């Protein structure tokens, strides 16, 4: 059995938090992508990647409303390259990150289209964006295996709840796993993640790394 944790990062402590959780034996460390409640997730994950050697790292979870699929794919693949293949990409339809800027969670149909585009970018393919063949051109210069995608599902969450949590998934065109926790309701056909990934949060020591 594998275990993961959703940890809320703090500036100048994210690297130390991730290293501590790795030392404690966790297999996956997730940071929330909720811009009003936590620091920018991808920067904190990069710091965590430099401080660890074994744990998988990713957002728990990002969403299809506040980020374009090309932006998310580029960030995830950069983390994959910097971490030596330890990135995982949790995504949902929006929770606290969306609510805090006065928006609503994504519709299922729109979310599915976002996932399809995201998977294409992650595979290094050209994605049709209003007639333009869009792809991550820098990816040709880097060896980065495709990042596994985890789709989030949530029960009812209040506006005061902390951000979502993941479970592996993909898009309509790739194997998909599901995240349980506060995240996004997703189509019932997605498979559940075999590994247990949840402990609500982790607290790092108060001293800087």
Task: Tell me briefly what this model is.
The chain has 5 helices and 10 strands; from the N terminus they run βαβαββαβααβββββ. With 209 residues, it is an alpha/beta fold.
Would you write up a description of this structure?
The protein is about 25% helix and about 15% strand. The protein has about 210 residues and is α/β, with parallel strands linked by helices. The chain has one domain: TIM Barrel, CATH 3.20.20.30. Strands 4-5-8-9-10 form a 5-stranded parallel β-sheet, with no helix packed on it. A 3-stranded parallel β-sheet has the order 1-2-3. Strands 6-7 form a two-stranded antiparallel ribbon. β1 (about 5), α1 and β2 form a beta-alpha-beta unit. The two termini are about 30 Å apart. Residues about 155-165 and about 165-209 have low confidence and may be disordered.
Task: Throw out a few tags for this protein.
209 residues; alpha/beta; TIM Barrel; three-stranded parallel beta sheet; 10 strands; globular
Q: How would you summarize the topology of this molecule?
A:
Layout: E1 4-6, H1 14-23, E2 28-31, H2 41-51, E3 56-59, E4 62-63, H3 69-83, E5 89-92, H4 96-99, H5 108-122, E6 127-129, E7 132-134, E8 149-153, E9 177-180, E10 191-192
Parallel strand pairs: 1-2, 2-3, 4-5, 5-8, 8-9, 9-10
Antiparallel strand pairs: 6-7
């Amino acid at each position: 059995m594998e275990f993961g944790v959703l940890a809320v990062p703090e500036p100048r402590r994210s690297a130390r938090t991730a290293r501590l959780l790795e030392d404690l034996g966790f297999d996956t460390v997730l940071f929330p992508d909720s811009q009003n409640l936590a620091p920018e997730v991808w920067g904190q994950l990069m710091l965590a990647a430099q401080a660890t050697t074994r744990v998988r790292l990713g957002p728990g979870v990002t969403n299809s409303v506040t980020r374009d699929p090309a932006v998310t794919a580029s960030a995830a693949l950069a983390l994959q390259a910097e971490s030596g293949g330890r990135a995982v990409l949790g995504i949902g339809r929006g929770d606290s990150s969306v609510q805090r800027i006065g928006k609503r969670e994504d519709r299922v149909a729109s979310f599915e289209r976002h996932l399809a585009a995201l998977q294409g970018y992650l595979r290094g393919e050209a994605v049709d964006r209003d007639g333009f063949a869009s792809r991550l051109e820098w990816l040709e210069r880097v060896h980065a295996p495709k990042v596994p995608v985890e789709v989030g599902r949530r029960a009812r969450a209040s506006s005061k709840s902390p951000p979502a949590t993941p479970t592996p998934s993909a898009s309509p065109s790739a194997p998909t796993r599901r995240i349980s926790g506060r995240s996004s309701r997703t189509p019932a056909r997605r498979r559940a993640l075999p590994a247990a990934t949840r402990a609500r949060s982790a607290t790092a020591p108060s001293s800087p790394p």
